[in-house]
Amino acid sequence: MKKALIIFGISGLVLIAASCSKDGGSGGSTPFTVNCATVTNKAFAADVSPIIQSSCAISGCHATGSTNGPGALTSYAEISAAASNIRSAVSTGRMPQSGSLSSAQKSSIICWIDNGALNN
After folding, report:
1. pTM for this predicted structure
2. Averaged pLDDT for residues 92-96
């Protein structure tokens, strides 16, 4: 009986952990890797900011006044201050919550951060 309860308890924990991820536990936790030496579109103003503005800084997510995660992501100061959180969320696929980013978009964001998150 104790063995059955332990197995049932462990199964319940696995189910709870899986339901807390964006994709219900069916994947998305393997970090995205990129060779930044081959990525050319990694400038903040031209590449990264438009991605974040269209995928993250939208109503209800990380718009002005947001308290979700790192808060608002509408300016260079806010985005650069949250760079490590953004990198982690993008590389694991946890963000954006609605939809997904292409490999090229992920590469732009990750390489911009890995290259010092410059205001360029």
Report:
1. 0.73
2. 92
Residues across the chain: 120
Residue indicated by tokens 């269209």:
54
Q: Which two tokens stand for residue 114?
A: 């890995």
Each domain of the chain, given as residue ranges in start order, spans 36-120
Q: Quick one: tokens of 95?
A: 């963000």
48-71: pLDDT as tens digits: 999 999 999 887 799 999 999 999
Transcribe 35-91 into DSSP letters: -GGG-----IIIIIHHHHHHHTSSTTTTSTT--STT----SHHHHHHTHHHHHHHHH
- 17, containing H or E segment: helix 2-19
Instruction: Check if the beta carbon of residue 18 is closer than 8 Å to that of residue 25.
Output: yes
> pLDDT: is 14 or 112 the higher one?
112
